[in-house]
Amino acid sequence: MTWPELYREALAHYEGTANIAGVGRIKSNLAVLHVVAGEHQEAADLLMEALELRRNAGDLAGEAATLDNLAELHRQLGALEQAGRLQRDALALHEQLGDRGAVAWARKKLADLAYWDERYEEAETGYIEALADLEGGDSHARLMALVGLGAVQRDRGKVFDASRHLADALTGARADGDLRALAHALLHRGRLGRYLAEHEHAVADLQASVTTYQQLKDHRGVALALCELGHSALACDRPAGELHQRAAKLISNSRLGVASEPGARVLELERAIASRQRGERLLLGHRPGDLPAAILEDSRGVLDDPKTLSVD
Length: 312
Known about the structure:
With 312 residues, this protein is an all-alpha fold. 75% of the residues lie in helices and 0% in strands. The protein has 15 helices and no strands. The radius of gyration is 20 Å and the shape is globular.
């Protein structure tokens, strides 16, 4: 029996009782499976039903968890303003409940939203505050916040700080055996190396990122890392066609689709390859402070983490 089938069986049981909090909990958890599967409308319907049920039951912790999931769903759909509003509502409930770990996670996710919305100064401040809250707490959340901080500092031209925080994230991820944080940190350090024209180091990090994402069976991450490798190959006057084909195949064989962020990166690499074949000059190897917006744009949106969804 699959997880969706188990949840639907539990839902059928709870719906025959007066336990509306239980019904809300099952619907919220079932919605998470739909979010992961990319079935956004089904997830939205279940989450809205769960939110009403949990509010009516006075289940503040459950309401906060459902708001967390609604915020993540809206983030995936690109509705960043709505995602921020929902995440702030969740944060207020976590603070009311005194859940320090959940408060830190919520602040980290608000920093992620600011990053994706190009509000880099706000994002940097948010990651620093989240790291202070996470001191001695959830190690995975702390590592992901370090990666986010390093990424935004790279985009702000703070190369030394970015390098230091990404190195700290790598050290911590390896010590903890945290493959997801490790994959993200390698990807971002590889991007930093590419922007600084340190192509050998960039290639090593990006290849390790591909391997780690493959271990996680994270097709999205693999596709993103392959595209970064493709750009590094072009910067070194090496062919990138095979890397592009591998990334494109992952997109076509998954639910990601060409409209997804990895799909957009595949199209960008395809255009870069075409430009190189036409003999056009590529804007690679510049320092972050000199990077045009079109290149900085591909730095965002790679901090996806299934743990940002709340199953309770």
